Amino acid sequence: MSDTLLQSTLRELRTLLSRPRLWLVFALVVGLFSLTGPFGTYERLPFHSRLGYWLSLHTGAWGCALVCVAFSDAALSRRVAHRMIRMLIGAIVAALPIGVVITAINTAVIKAPFNLSQFGENALVALPISIGFCVLAWLSLSSGEDTNAARKHDADDTPASIASAPPEATITQTSVNRPDRPALLDRLPIAKRGSLIRLEVQDHYVLAVTDKGSELLLMRLGDAIVEAGAGQQIHRSHWVADRGVESITRQTGTNPRLMLHTSDGQTLPVSRSHTAAVRTRWAGRLNR
């Protein structure tokens, strides 16, 4: 596995594990299974043993599903357009290791035989469970989550209209006459939906930075720019919002380049292909 794919998988895992909804459902499922004792565990095991059994089984099963879903999402990001389909492929593959986990735990706890037949049965049982987990994970990462609450929360963060800049032929230029709130903020956790400062490419992800924090989004920079509102792409890996620009300076030397200083304390290079647009758009912030 390449370092880039490994890093993308780990970032996807971190994103999934940071969702409180996922942990809440996990706790509810473990509690429900421990209380009701399905699959004969109520008759075979006392409550404390049932709790340990279902906690171990669900921890192993959810762990396998998380890894497979995150890996599939990262590995297929450039081949399969729809995220739900990518995650579903990972969930189907996860049924195999989950079947092994169930078979091993059943052998250790309730003395079930450990053989190929049992593994096949448990893998079939694991398949709908894994698919259900995939749907839950996808809903947890849905970009439209808590949209109405976010709009109310961010009512004071609506960007003011600014003067229109010269049109550009590429996606590097975002319309500056948008009075509405950037749609990209709806992809962020509510606590981080502040004033957008900048976007930065990191492997298959885009790092969205606001004045309330940052978040990795699994999407292309071009797609993120379309939803970002008023700003300018300054480099193939960087886009900066109008209100995120503190100042612009010129490097010294025989071949000087512009350097843009952002409100979150970063200094970013301006590529030569974007220099003219940056000069035009933010002429008032250029240090002579």
UniProtKB/TrEMBL annotation:
Pfam families: LytTR (PF04397). Keywords: Membrane, Transmembrane, Transmembrane helix. Residues 149-174 are annotated as: Disordered. The lineage of its organism: Bacteria, Pseudomonadati, Pseudomonadota, Alphaproteobacteria, Hyphomicrobiales. The chain crosses the membrane at residues 21-39, 51-76, 88-110, 122-141. Residues 196-284 form the HTH LytTR-type domain. InterPro entries: LytTR_DNA-bd_dom (IPR007492). This is LytTR family transcriptional regulator.
